[in-house]
Design goal:
alpha/beta, Metallo-beta-lactamase, Chain A, 7-stranded mixed beta sheet, 16 strands, 22% helix
Length: 228
């Protein structure tokens, strides 16, 4: 199995099933992969903001994939012709080749309508994906919260995908505290350097995490993969 970073908060998991999370490719200044290049069985969407919902409709339709998200987003995707599976935070589901559980994430979730108003799309979430004997935690867009300790205690997390960009999500210091709570084996930082507002020194983040926790940090460039 391998996990490929596609830029911002988008990851492609290739295993018994192929899963893309937060497929923001079109308009993503970090992306080196086009939506037309994606082959996937499932599309997971953490929340409704454009830089996460992204190409979810186009990719799901092209691949005849099942989209998985909170009920409000699943209903939005279904209205747009996508086969969608609705869930909610705290709920889990076994899709046969993998399992997914939705976790809390402290953020917002909406998309703009044509009339300038916003459509509320439920609560944002993170994902715990269990596939091919590995447990991957995609935290979604979130601030630091104490129940991350509970997530780490109840799940033996092999890989955590953690935002570090600050301003809209945790910054590096809060992300370090999150890692102390979650206790994953490996961390890949995400949601940074896409735009100047969320630029971070990822090398310093890696050094701080490995010095203070002993957890391995893998810095991936868009298109680069981690074999698990």
């Amino acid at each position: 199995m391998k996990v490929t970073f596609l830029g911002h908060a988008c990851f492609l998991i290739n295993g018994t099933s192929n899963i893309i999370i937060d497929p923001f490719l079109t308009g993503n200044p970090m992306a080196v992969t086009k939506k037309e290049d994606i082959q996937t069985d499932y599309v997971l969407v953490s929340h409704g903001h454009y830089d996460h919902m992204g190409d979810a409709v186009a990719v799901a339709k092209k691949c005849n994939a099942t989209a998985v998200s909170v009920a409000e987003i699943a209903n939005y995707l279904a209205r747009n012709g996508v086969n969608a599976h609705a869930m909610h935070i705290g709920g889990g589901h076994d899709f046969g080749s993998f399992k997914v559980k939705l976790t809390p994430a402290w953020h917002g979730s909406s998309l703009p309508r044509d009339d300038g108003t916003a459509e509320y799309l439920g609560n944002p979430c993170g994902f715990i994906v269990t596939i091919d004997g590995k447990v991957i935690y995609h935290a979604g867009d979130t601030g630091l919260f104490g129940d991350m300790e509970l997530i780490g205690r109840l799940n033996s997390i092999d890989l955590a995908l953690i935002p570090i960009g600050d301003n809209f999500t945790m910054g590096p210091q809060d992300a370090l505290e999150a890692i102390k709570l979650i206790k994953p084996r490996v961390v890949i930082p995400m949601h940074y350097n896409t735009w100047p507002l969320i630029e971070q020194d990822v090398g310093k983040f890696k050094e701080d995490v490995q010095t203070n926790t002993g957890v391995t940090v893998r810095i991936l460039s868009p298109g680069e993969a981690l074999d698990m």
